[in-house]
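Hi,

I'm pasting everything inline rather than attaching a file, because the server keeps stripping attachments. The sequence lines come first, and each chain or strand is labelled.
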Amino acid sequence: MSELSLPRDIPRPAETRDTGLFAWIASLDHKQIGIMYLIATLVFFLAGGVQALLMRTQLIRPENTLIGPGTFDELFTMHGTTMIFLVVMPMLIGFATYLVPLQVGARDIAFPRMNAMSFWFLVFGGLLLYYSYLAGGAPDVGWFSYAPLSERPYSMTTGVDYWALGLLSTGIGTITAGINLMVTILALRAPGLALTRLPLFTWMVLVNSVLILLALPVLNASLVELLIDRLLNAHVFAPQGGGSAVLWQHYFWAFGHPEVYIMVLPAFGMISEIIPVFSSKPIYGYEFVAASTAAIAFLSLVVWAHHMFAVGLGFASDVFFAISSMLIAVPTGIKILNWTATLWRGSIRLTTAMLFCLAFLAMFTIGGISGVSFTAVPVDWQVEDTYYVVAHMHYVLFGGTAFGMFGAFYYWFPKMTGRLLDETLGKWHFWLALVGFNLTFMIQHVLGLMGIPRRVFTYPNLPYWGSFNVVSTIGSYILALSVLVFIWNMLRSLRRGAPAGDNPWGAWSLEWATSSPPPEHNFDRVPPIWGRRPLWDLAHPAASGRPPWWRELARRTRRPAMPPAQMGMLIFIGSEATFFLVLIISYAYYHLNPSPGPTASQVLHPAAAGLNTAFLIASSVTLWWGMREQHRGRRTSFIAWLGVTIVLGALFLFGQGREWLGLLTSNVTVARDLFGATFFTLTGFHGLHVFLGLLLLGMLFVLALLGQFRGRTSVGVESVSLYWHFVDAVWIVLYTLIYVWAFIK
Amino acid sequence: MQVSSPFNPVSPQGLATKSLLELVLWLGAGVFVIVAGLVLVAAIRFRARPGAPEPPQVEGRHQWEYVWIAGAVAVLIAIFIPTVAMMRAAAPPGGSEDPGPDIIIIGHQWWWEIRYPHGGILTANEVHLPVGRPMVTRLESADVIHDFWVPQVGRKEDLTPGYPTTVVLQADRPGTYLGACVEFCGAGHAWMRISVIAESSQAFDAWLASERQPPPPPATPEAVAGEKLYASLSCDHCHASTVAVGPDLTHIAARQTLAAGRIANTPDTLGRWLADPQALKPGVLMPDFRLTPDQIRDLVAYLETRR
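And the predicted assembly:
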């Protein structure tokens, strides 16, 4: 097979490859960044594991006084937050960062610098979160920080502030990672790799990125509102000031349930890669596995209130969310059965990676089944908020995702390092993990059904409670031992592992077509792709059923719809829209349920704001006109119109500043009432976006003066203008929402 | 002692939930046995053998996919129908001539204020129910979110500040049923326990009557001294019915437990509690008054008269 040319848009790799520490820290190579993700998340995994062991030790007998409630509450909050935001989600992103460019046959990820930024935002967020210990106390209100317990009057240390800031930081990093992965998959695929031929891991990362971009902005907006409550004395979620404690729950779970799938889908992808390879058969029902992923992602957006059946939202709401939650079991069941069918009549090699995937099937099925029991609402009314939930989520996230990731480590470690992990240690790791995990968590179902609430630092000496907890604690020690074996295996194999070669497992996707570890530019040449298993097709030229050449020609000559930068900007705008949507819902909610205090119609002046609106709309027009001039090759005119746009944007900001000043002097503030809180949050964040847009326009302006943008089009100008038009569109929505709505009768 | 579990229900809703729970668990067990069994059989039967040829490269059959989808949908329908039926049964009765709730439970950090508005009764941490009579109960919170759950009696429900809700409590067998706050509410969450005491109609009415009576005046010298101490320490600063920082103590001696189910209520444990509240219930808002043993004896003697 001859060498194929790569698409021209692929970023060039960095010039040199140094192996020192600085080369890692400053790296823009997706493989190095991916490995750094894995190392950082493994460190956090150990921290979260120690927290879990401390909790299990405290719970080993009733009325234990080893750890008091203050420390214990910090432990479970930090354990949950660490494992979700600093381990599971970023570890999956780390694998994706490493693997996706390889699996699509690209030289690097779409935006290498933003990739490094995503990773360092994660590290920074993790450090912020853990800094809380030094700053007077870690957060101690649970990983979902229910208001009003998380509000200042009930949580007076800075723990929750650091929690929110840390999650905002990791949240931004996650969103940029999602954009990066999505653009990489959509725009940088090797010739012939149609979306319908994607390896399932990459496919699920694509779906997962969509979920990230829809869910994480919801969390970010809620965190911002919580911080405004805590730091600026607003009451968005504080019932004592007219806010709604239920609103926080809606927001949190509108993020939180998609988050569950964000933490599971890539693991689905991993086992969809590993099971077929070690069964020597293609995945059974590729289309169904792929489509069910999309179905799960879609459904996961409309099931959040099944976390809130105990709130008492009423019959209609409970039935709706019961149905939508039950429906999720269908695509999940399709997946489980397709994986099982892949095994059937295969030729199964029970490597450690495969063992973990088989255990995944059984363990995740238990987690799925206990998940279905929450959709039977009256059952949820009994088991919600008990140890049954603790057991359920660990079957999903440990028996499911963590087992999948362990399998992924054994499977891809050779690709990353060039050395195999030791199989004997691997088997020890597997069996200790399987036994320890089930000892720890199976009995917690029973504990929950016997009435033990979750998040208790101790419990009364009632029949069986003590002895069952002993079993769980012993299991957790065995599980911890298995993790030590795993870590030892990796450290040992890094130096002494058997050399792996390019393709130790006889696998079929593109990452196995290059050396282990891959060169900095990933591929010397990408093999031809005319199916879902390029390397299998290569090995079976007769059987592979190569499609007719004219169809392949059509696939190969198809150009991406738009440059990656513009695509990235559009996706970013989508996530920003979600962010604003949450702030808009808050405003609308309190406009309809006003608290005592001034309201929009009493203090706002629609005419002045209308003039302001005209400025902003005009700025969109001038920018559009300026770009038209650029397309016609009139550079001076383009620069002039850019300048006019900047002036109009600045006028808007000036007008808004005047309005704010007027409101503040008449004592309409964030802390005054809920109109104030939501109005300033909404217009403030919009103003911030205008300000950032002005900075970008200013950069374009200066660069243009310095002689840039000599061509008739420029990706930079196009992307900034997309952003600017978006900011204007948001303002039109806000003007209608805030000013027009207040004055129509 | 009976295990406090949804499998030992004493209310009609609890019984219905138990049968639904059993249905879900049996169906789930069936699904698990099928999946795990198939995986296990495949892992044994289709293990790779050296020199064996590559297995047939089957990519899937649509018919099987439809069979699985139909199977999953059938299981879910089997769960959904009884779910909705049971939810309807558990809904609190509506109606135009709503006489208001029989009981109001108000969550506090970390105890339960319990009111019987028709009888003008205020108590704490123990809910008395007449056997067999459904009691409409309103749930509120004075501070953060709590959650009322007594597994044998039935569903749990949050006590959300600013969002009162209504449930029906019913117990068809006399007895004491243990429960707890199950929504994390801060440092004292683990010891925010509750009990439901179901008794015959006569016993319930007698309890109501005794709660309505003021307690007898203290008679012994220790109790009289204790009453003075109670006043001088300003105990009612928190424990008066109008303040509700701490539970009302008018009939404290008639209750079975102390500190929201932390410990059985005896003169001895009451003394221990007064001597060092934090030792029994870390995080509790009750201060340590550094009382001398004599003062504790007097206070206990006084409080024991309040029944």
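Residues 564-743 of chain A form a domain with the Four Helix Bundle (Hemerythrin (Met), subunit A) fold (CATH 1.20.120.80).

If the labels don't parse on your end, tell me and I'll reformat.
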